[in-house]
Amino acid sequence: MTSTPSSNGSRAPRGRSLPWQALVDAAMLLLWGLMLLRFTVTGKLYLLLHPDYMWLAHLAMVLLLAMGVSRLVQVGLSYRQGTRQTIRSQEHMALLPRQFSVGLLIAIAVFGLVYTPRPFASETAFQRGITDVLGQTRSRPQRFSLGGESEERTIVDWVRTLNVYPEPDAYAGLPAKVSGFVTHIPGWPDEFVMISRFVLTCCAADAYPVGLPVELPPGTARPAPDTWLEIEGTVQTSTLDGKRQLAIGDPTLTEIPEPRTPYEY
Predict the structure, then answer these.
(1) Is 260 in contact with 46 (CB distance < 8 Å)?
(2) What is the chain's Cα-based Rg?
(3) Which of 11, 150, 231, 261 is least enclosed by beta carbons within 10 angstroms?
(4) Residue 16, C-beta contacts closer than 8 angstroms, at least 6 positions apart
């Protein structure tokens, strides 16, 4: 006569499968949190977001990591106790199949973990129309003022000043000290280059270029495009593309490393 052994309540039921759906959800949350953590630690987040919105990315990073860890803990506890019902994902209406949308989110996070963002340079400046914004930025000052030391003005400060009072002769003779990357404008004389920066208003998607012409000293070799320079010289009026424009003359060119935060705000 045989007897059926009684099951041990503490032993996990045989043949029970892992809750893969919940594990994939946890992996997705953790990967996105790690991607934001990587961008934060390496400083690359400055290439993607305006500093005013950094706190949103940091908050999202903490929440995603916390949710991912919490999901893993929930899966582990529920699996040990044999209560799979508590770890089933919430069902909701979606435009895309759940497997496709989760897979897409995971793929984007993995790409973000292996891809290293680079700051925009001259090629992107041409694509976004640098020659169209020499005297007009999208961010306009509330008032016009010539106060303060002119050497402390950035490229953006100069261009915004020109938005209000575009007569370049008004600034002739003022000292200027700016930094940016070199851009070669087609059709300009060889002794002229553009010193440029990108302006970030929200994120990299809305970044737009601004710049100032620089007349190189006689006999100076033209710097290579995308070279970062600090330019110290005197404001003058030059005629380029048939237009009188503010330019920097008699400059001293100093090559500098690419800044950690290469954008203006």
Answers:
(1) yes
(2) 28
(3) 11
(4) 79, 82, 84
Return the structure tokens found at 107: 């793929």
181: left (phi over 0), alpha (psi -120 to 50) or beta: beta
The distance in angstroms from the start CA to the end CA of the chain is 85
Element (H, E) at 127: helix 122-127
The pLDDT score that the predictor gives to residue 78 is 75
126, 180, 133: which is closest to 154 by C-alpha?
A: 180
| Distance in angstroms (rounded) separating the CA atoms of residues 192 and 224 | 12
The contacts of residue 149 (CB under 8 Å, 6+ apart) are none
Secondary structure class of 224 (helix, strand, coil): coil
Instruction: Provide DSSP, 140-172.
Output: --SS----S-GGG--HHHHHHHHHH---GGGGT
- Report the predicted TM-score, pTM, of the whole model to 2 decimal places: 0.71
The pLDDT, as a whole number, for residue 96 is: 62
Tens digits of per-residue pLDDT, 14-52? 555 667 788 888 899 999 999 999 999 988 888 888 888
**Token couple for 230:** 């600090």
Between CA 24 and CA 29 the distance in angstroms is: 9
